[in-house]
Amino acid sequence: MRAILTLLLALSLASCSMAIPRTPGAFIQAAQGNTFEPMDTLDPRNAMVYIYRPVNQWGYEEVQAPGFFINERMLFGLKSGAYTWLELHGGEYDFYARRPLSILFLKTIFELPLSVKGGNTYYFRYSEDQPLDFAYHGIDPEQYVQAGPLQQVPEGLALREIRNLRLDEPGVYYGGEAYREPRWAPFRTFSD
User: How high is the mean pLDDT of the chain?
Assistant: First the structure.
């Protein structure tokens, strides 16, 4: 009976289009990639978004890293002491993170209506237990987007914090359908 229930559960999960957590936490395996280097976008009309997670003890005790989603698609997990990048067409997106437990996501950590402009670069700091104190750094928090433990930060501050962090998972190009190129035509025709 147990084997049948397990098989039914596996088949139902396989037939769903739901995301399954896939990033072990830093307790299991710390980020091994290269230290931070800025990247160019594939298309100059796109925005580059860097998401990083400063090193802290609490993050290093995590067995599974939170999963980050955009428009209901899982993009990556983010370990303590790591960063990743996301290239997006200019526009608005539903951006959120969820806390995993084994093969399920149980809790939404933050939800953010993310609005980006093509050609711009954005930096987001993720820290559940050590949020950035904007007043201490002399930064007006009204100029930056915040949602729970995710905070948009100015470039100068981000570059100081991110420079020694390691790439955890390769970045993601999320194209969506924002740009539609016109069909090429060999002639230009005019209507009467």
Answer: 78
Q: Return the domain boundaries, the chain.
A: 46-174
- Residues making up the chain, counted from first to last: 192
Q: Could you tell me whether strands 104-116 and 91-101 are parallel, antiparallel, or unpaired per DSSP bridges? A: antiparallel
Distance CA 33, CA 173 (A): 18
Is this structure's pTM higher than 0.90?
no
pLDDT at 67: 84
Asked if residues 165 and 55 have their Cβ atoms less than 8 Å apart, the reply is yes
- Categorize the per-residue pLDDT at 46 as very low, low, confident or very high, splitting at 50, 70 and 90: very high
